[in-house]
Amino acid sequence: MRGFLAGVAQEAELVVWERSVDTVFWGGGTPGLLAPRALGALGEIVLRHSRGQPQEWSVEMAPASVTPRRLTVLKELGVTRISMGVQSFQRPLLEALGRQHTPEQALRAYERVRAAGFASVNLDLIFAIPGQSLDVWRADLDTAVRLQPDHVSTYCLTFEEDTALFVKLSHGRVRLDVEKEAAFYTEAWARLEAAGYAQYEISNFARPGHECLHNLNTWRMEEWIGLGPSAASQFGGWRGSNVADLAQWRSGVDTGRRADVDRIELTPRMLAEDSLVFGLRMNEGIDLPALRARFPTAPWENVIALAVRLREAGLAEWDDRHLRLTLRGRLVADAVAVQIMEAMVEPVPAGTNQFE
Question: Has domain 18-218 been given CATH number 3.40.190.10?
Answer without folding.
Answer: no
